[in-house]
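Task 17 of the worksheet. Students: predict the tertiary structure of the chain below and write it out as structure tokens. Keep your answer in the requested format; marks are given for formatting as well as content.
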Amino acid sequence: MKRRILLLRTFFLLLNIIPASGFGQTKIIVTDTVRRGAVKIFLDCHECDMNYIRQEIPYINYVRDVREAQVYILETKQDAGSGGDQFTFTFQGQGAFTGMIDTLVFTSSPDQTSTIIREKRTKMIKMGLMRYVAKTPLIDEIEINHNAELEQEEVVDKWNNWVFELSTEPQYRSEETNKRLEWRNSINVSKVTPDIKLEVEMDQFYNREKFIENANTDSASSNTYVTNERFMNMLFVKSLGDHWSAGFKSDLGSSTVENYSFRTNFLPSVEYDIFPYSESTHRQLRIMYSAGYQYNKYIDSTIYNKVNEGLYLQMLNIAFQVQKKWGSINLALVGSNYFHDFSKNRIELISSIKIRIFKGLSLQIDGGVAHLNDQLNLKRGSISEAERLLQLRELATKYRIEGGIEITYTFGSIYNNVVNPRFSSSDFDY
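Model answer:
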């Protein structure tokens, strides 16, 4: 009888063993008993593969409430000059670890696959957690190794920070009474250094839709509708210290939807960030003023009987962003007007707010509102039903409102260490 009980105890202990890889070539065996003393973390990141992270970092406890965590980890992302993304990881100790704060940065390259980026993002979390894990019983379960063949080499950039991106996206759909062809082409050229930022983007959007009536009969007829848009946007920025920058924005293009045979503008701009640019991954309050010249040549006469015109205009853009452990706020207020007639103006407010109200309850609000009184390009004449339904032509409007709200409440166990991918709707559930 004693032997049977001993075998059963051994069997259940084996069921509770969790093998996983650790830091570098770390080898870890963690039992539930040891894990009770593990660091409790709250990971705040966008589009993280949590199943993968839990499997790769099993020597901590993942909690669902930031107030229960001993370490709060915030991941933020910004576009990098290479065409990739810069991920910033901020580690903030709480409770027994109060005052232990660290920041790590990883920059991906555009040729790296999502699998490689996922691996490197997870590695940064591992590295940042080591100082906290070192103060727990789990430190005895971790071994740290390095690659013996690691060599330091000098990196030579033969492209001198220039990045080029080409893309094409044709799509075709065919039915008995409907044929549709969509085509998008894009060219992006950029050079980003700590001192300057130069970006050039060229886009073409082509859409052709054919409707067939009385198909497969002698009286068959068809109607074809085409929209075509071409744009080139240029941005140049020169850094002027921790708070100031200056440069210009310039656009040119054409659009059958917006009644432009040709449109171009040139807007010298200056920007001031109340917070230093070095804190941009956590908070920004940027104020940008632009003023310049715009020339429009229209496909058809406008509602103001214009076939072309030159205009002077100004724009003011105020953007506020903050990411903290209580949530995040993104607000942008944009206003513009033409100098020849100040009543021809536009004001837009765009917002995204996410707040953790209390344990398990969070609120997210997305929305935007705009007052529009600057549609000088509107085509004169009545609007056909096809133009309205297929959005072949820009319509007159005085305002635009959009938005949504999401309330989430989660309760139950504060721990979420377990990974079970069975019957998932997708292998890429984040």
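Marker's comment: The chain has three domains: 2-141, 161-239, 268-430. The chain is about 10% helix and 50% strand.
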